[in-house]
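Form 7-S
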Amino acid sequence: MSNQLDQLKQFTTVVADTGDFATLKQFAPRDATTNPSLILKAAQMPEYQFLVDKAIADNKAKAGGKELLAHVLDDLLILFGVEILKIVPGRVSTETDANLSFDTDALVVKGRHFIELYEKQGIARERILIKIASTWEGIRAAEILQRDGIKCNLTLLFSLVQAVACAEARVKLVSPFVGRIMDWYKAKEKKEFAPAEDPGVLSVQEIYGYYKKFGYATEVMGASFRNIGEIQELAGCDLLTISPQLLGELQKSTAPLARKLSPEIARASKIEKIPLDEKKFRWLFNENAMATEKTAEGIRQFNADAMKLEQFIAAKLK
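Output:
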């Protein structure tokens, strides 16, 4: 019997949630995702100092002060992405600034800028996913970028209403955060959840079912897992982005892995279509305390780590 990671790859695209190149080589995912927290961690590792040095060296003669810092930070994200794409055969997700999450125009500018930087490195835009938080403004930015042929990954997604708005905007991919949803309910209800009853798992199943039933092309990529039980319950989802620790656990297990999600099962579900405009989106999102709290918390957390990365680079520039 093959290991569970290999079994999972038979019906789900496996994505590595890391900025560590050694991990990518070990688990051979098709795609990889990064975020400010992962890049901060990787940039501080001695083996990736060469990328930090290159980003600084390439920009020192072009600008100074805050402008130099901004150029270095953007280039560093792209350099990590380029190195990742030397290892994975598919795509890499590169995250926009968290502090732009409510600024549609700025997100569009940033997304186009990232693609321009990648194309200067010889990377085709088909291999890039621009990561944007699933705010109303972020979804509108993704809609514009998608029309430009720039594919987007809508992240920090915690509810069906966010997922529906993304699908209506024809974004390429959404990343519902399984573990963070479970964390919220675990804290509120003071109880543990079996994988099959995990609120994060149920949320992704609902989104997957909605997309397949109503024929949306947007891909569903479950993210932010706390245990392999959550992953096993979502076997068959379009994509799953998994941390190195959990990839290792799947690789060590040879127990049979059953497919739990499929388009055929989804199309038979009784879920009803949700008509949506901005007012309806904002109301339904507001009514979901978990989604509003976790989206805001996630934006704050990513911004905090981006600020730490900025301080790390600023110290190098002195």
